[in-house]
Amino acid sequence: MTTATLTTKTSDSIASAPGLINTIRSEWIRIWRPSFRYGGFGVLAGFSVLISYFIYSSLADPSAAAGPAGPGGAATTAADLEQAGGMIHALGTISTLAGIVVLSLWAIAAASDYDSGLIRVLVQAQPSRLRLLGGKIIALSFFTVLLSAATVFITSAVARPLARAYEIDTEPWKTDAAAEMASGFFNFLIPVLVWGLIGLMIAVLTRSSGTAIGVGIGWLLVVENLIGITAPDITHLLPGGTLSALAAGGTTDLSWTSALGLTLLYGAVAACVSLLAFRNRDIVS
Amino acid sequence: MSAITAQGLTRRFGELTAVDDLTFEVPSGGVVGFVGPNGSGKSTTIRVLLGLIEASDGVGTVLGEPITHPERFAHRVGALIEAPTFIGSLSAWDNLRSMAALRGISEQRIHEVLEIVGLAGREKDKASTFSLGMKQRLGIAAALLPDPELLVLDEPTNGLDPAGIVEIRTLLKSLADGRRTVVVSSHLMSEIQAMADDLVVIRFGKLLYSGSLTGLMEDAVEQVIAVPEFGTDLPQLIGAIESRGWAYTSHGDLLQIQAPASSSADVGRAATEAGVTLRQLTPQQDNLEDIFLRLTGGTDAELAASRGEQRTTGATS
Hints:
The structure holds two protein chains of two kinds.
Chain A: H1 3-7, H2 17-31, H3 34-59, H4 62-65, H5 78-81, H6 91-116, H7 118-125, H8 129-165, H9 177-206, H10 209-230, H11 239-247, H12 256-280
Chain B: E1 4-13, E2 16-26, E3 30-35, H1 42-50, E4 57-62, E5 65-66, E6 77-80, H2 92-103, H3 108-116, H4 132-144, E7 150-154, H5 162-175, E8 181-186, H6 189-195, E9 198-203, E10 206-212, H7 213-217, E11 222-228, H8 234-243, E12 247-251, E13 254-258, H9 264-273, E14 278-285, H10 288-296, H11 300-316
Parallel strand pairs in B: 3-8, 3-9, 6-7, 7-8
Antiparallel strand pairs in B: 1-2, 1-4, 4-5, 9-10, 11-13, 11-14, 12-13
């Protein structure tokens, strides 16, 4: 029997412009469904408003302002807000929750293809699996860019009335506003995209959206905290700590540059593992 | 050119051999039934042929291209593998638009396939509101998008009511024009018998038959069932049957006469001439299921039991 001919894997590459664009267009139609659209934008808009409100309202209570660091890695003081870029200061805190939302959305987008069996039809129609998953990653990334832009916009929009209400001086916000917005957007987007890639990787490996979301959130909320107790020196290097540090613009434990480098490394590993696993595993769902 | 060929195709999952050294050929054009009971390896074979899973051994071609390079034939093949799958919150149109975009097909073709499957006018409805029959038709519409030379439908009548089955059967027959080959897998033998021109029959992953339906049906046993009105007339009836040289077996008052089904009138005439009134006179011919059971020598349970015994014997010897 000709076993040798079977062990040669189909030549597969992402690079074929028409094929990849078709895949992105196809994926976009599925991503832009109401549950994703309204769910994604609605939840992030809600988080933006609520977290912004909590940050400003906690400033009114000096003891709360002096409390322990939040998910963003630093407690917020009035002085933090009365700086250039203060209008989007809340993004550092929103980032972790946004990361969980995006992880969940990416995991659902990938694993629901397995859950529903749609993956069979997709792979039959587009046998290049790298192109299929590459198109999904690009489409989801674009969706995440829109989500992030909306979050930055809403956060900055609610900051002005909150600042007025809590007597925060907004004069410094006029200094380099565009540059501050751009850098805030970047520091928010990159970690959130990597959260998405991590969600995608877990979904491709587990082929179940529920499991993928559970593992992702469990890692962030439980495992990293447990590691933090037993080995506090490395907590800031773990995915949750690193991505939060980048979103906060760097921390005392991890500089912005180091956080960016490590975040990109986590993203690259997640993308490579996803692509390799998706390319090489049988479609048995 | 054959639509599909398989030579020694094998797929193992650990110790389980789901597809076992299959060699067959599917001719181009017409409806080809891919038949076997549940768990016989039909879906696995289809997945191997379409490149969803790799074969452990053997080779195959689809539309003349090797199955190891599905990218060479994917644009000429449409498939509905197991249950139709859609995003329920999207309309039928958007679901098809997504599949059309993936294949680089224009939206005009969506109108055409909706027309073909009888869903024109329902394209704005959400897929989640569709009945099972409508979902099957939508699945077939998606498979028809590339105007495929080979249409592979895995259990397309699964879960449908009798009216839905007839509907799908009629549709599939109309799709199998001279240019297009429609491969329909099913565990429902009667269903395949009603629509297929050719057959591939498998069980426990092994090939039982590959060829034309008429060729297989030539082996069908024909007989005539005769039951006299009064049991006391049975000896006269048997005498009349024997005098015409027909073999028979009796089960109480019932006679199974080994004669062509077309000779039932002769049996009736023989009974009348012998002065016997018949309560029942029924021509019978094996259907595909009967032939299938004869080919395999028993039902699933019987065969599974015998396989289990063989394994046990092998393990202890």
